[in-house]
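TA notes, week 10

Several of you asked for a full example with nothing omitted. So below is the full record: structure tokens for the whole chain, then the designed sequence directly under it. When grading your own attempts, check the secondary structure regions first.
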């Protein structure tokens, strides 16, 4: 297909940047790919687009990922309304645990790092629960916003025992690369931005020092924003037991399906079975221990699933686009074209910068995953670069752009959860993000030289 094969991802990128709408961008990209595949016939392109989206469900693997992404919304909703989060926070914030600036800063950092099942839940829990502590120990809400924003996404993209990992594994699987689980696991060590960001966050917390605009604005901050209080505290186990069961059962099922080798286990099957078990446990605890009506709990489950429906749609369309670009052999063409003009060692750094640019302009790291992973992995395989290195660059760059973007939902929620102004949060967090991004580019150049030699 030649240069036409790169038209669908270009359409997705241009429209997403122009309109800040990734779902429509992916739909247009799929239609464009279909139009090329059917030699420009618009009616056939329309039917091919629909059939290609429907065809995603022909894969049991893809269907498991989509079901997991829906069910995790129900689990999150049950945990939210249970009061278990509030009870857990109250336990942590007892005066024996938090009695200084350092410990007050550690609370949102640890919560943001531990509730990795969902970034929004992590941000809201860590932010809302820590506002009063930051006020008491004379730390600005801007510092709180930075801590919670800079822990939730990096930890989610490093641990990967969540919706991020399931979707990423699905994207990698669809590229046809050998041993997609191993590729995803190997990307963790190459996700330099996420690692550097967490190091900077914990340095900030433990040293109680801030720099740049954050330092100059702390004393002048006026906090007028209000946030919705957490549900009334009940019992910690309503939050802890389902999460512990989900994480432990994922590992157990990976071990079982891999015949004793976690790397060979079925990620799609493991996460689906685990979230079903965790949801059943959360439901059972609230029904029989908290005595909540079954009908109300079912309504909450469906409400949580509904909140994640846009995300599930995004994953569905990304799967369909990946299939279309596979038929167009986009990755192979990009590999040959780039290989003629750009040194192989520069590819990881270039992928990181491109991922950051797309994520910054669209405000979504998930959409960037769907656009770039189907290109980056085949490119790496063809050019002889470590797929894990390139995948780490995509993931890290996407999180970098998301952190720096004022239209990112995580950025907005972090400012609301901390009770500070959105643009002030962006302004004070940006220098930290740029430092992490700059160091990451240097590391990708160095590792590109080593892994391409």
């Amino acid at each position: 297909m030649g240069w036409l094969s790169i038209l669908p991802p270009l359409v997705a990128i241009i429209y997403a940047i122009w309109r800040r709408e990734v779902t429509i961008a992916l739909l247009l990209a799929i239609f464009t790919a279909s139009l090329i595949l059917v030699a420009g016939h618009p009616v056939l392109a329309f039917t091919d687009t629909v059939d290609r989206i429907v065809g995603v469900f022909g894969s049991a693997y893809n269907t498991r990922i989509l079901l997991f992404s829906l069910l995790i919304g129900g689990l999150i909703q049950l945990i939210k309304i249970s009061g278990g989060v509030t009870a857990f926070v109250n336990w942590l914030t007892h005066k024996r645990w938090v009695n200084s600036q350092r410990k007050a800063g550690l609370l949102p950092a640890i919560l943001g790092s531990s509730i990795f099942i969902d970034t929004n839940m992590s941000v809201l829990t860590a932010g809302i629960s820590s506002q009063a502590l930051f006020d008491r120990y004379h730390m600005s809400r801007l510092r709180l916003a930075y801590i919670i924003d800079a822990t939730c996404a990096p930890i989610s993209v490093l641990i990967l025992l969540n919706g991020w990992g399931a979707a990423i594994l699905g994207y990698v699987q669809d590229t046809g690369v050998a041993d997609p689980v191993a590729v995803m696991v190997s990307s963790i060590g190459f996700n330099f931005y996420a690692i550097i960001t967490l190091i900077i966050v914990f340095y900030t917390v433990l040293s109680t020092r801030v720099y740049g605009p954050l330092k100059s604005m702390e004393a002048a901050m006026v906090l007028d924003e209000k946030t919705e209080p957490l549900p009334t505290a009940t019992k910690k186990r309503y939050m802890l037991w389902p999460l512990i069961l989900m994480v432990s059962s994922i590992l157990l099922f990976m071990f079982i399906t891999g015949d004793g080798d976690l790397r060979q286990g079925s990620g799609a099957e493991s996460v689906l079975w685990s979230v079903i078990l965790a949801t059943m446990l959360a439901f059972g605890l609230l029904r029989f221990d908290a005595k909540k009506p079954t009908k109300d709990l079912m309504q909450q489950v469906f409400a949580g699933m509904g909140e994640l429906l846009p995300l599930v749609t995004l994953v569905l369309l990304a799967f369909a686009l990946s299939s279309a670009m596979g038929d167009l052999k986009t990755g192979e063409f990009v590999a040959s074209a780039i290989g003629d003009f750009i040194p192989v060692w520069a590819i990881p750094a270039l992928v990181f910068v491109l991922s950051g640019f797309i994520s910054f302009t669209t405000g979504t790291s998930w959409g960037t995953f769907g656009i770039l992973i189907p290109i980056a992995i085949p490119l790496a395989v063809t050019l002889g670069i470590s797929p894990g290195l390139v995948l780490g660059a995509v993931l890290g760059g996407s999180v970098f752009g998301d952190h720096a973007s004022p239209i990112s939902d995580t950025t907005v929620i972090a400012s609301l959860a901390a009770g500070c102004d959105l643009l002030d949060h962006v302004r004070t967090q940006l220098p930290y993000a740029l430092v992490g991004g700059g160091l990451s580019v240097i590391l990708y150049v160095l590792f590109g030289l080593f892994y391409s030699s």
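The radius of gyration is 22 Å. Use that as a sanity check on your answer.
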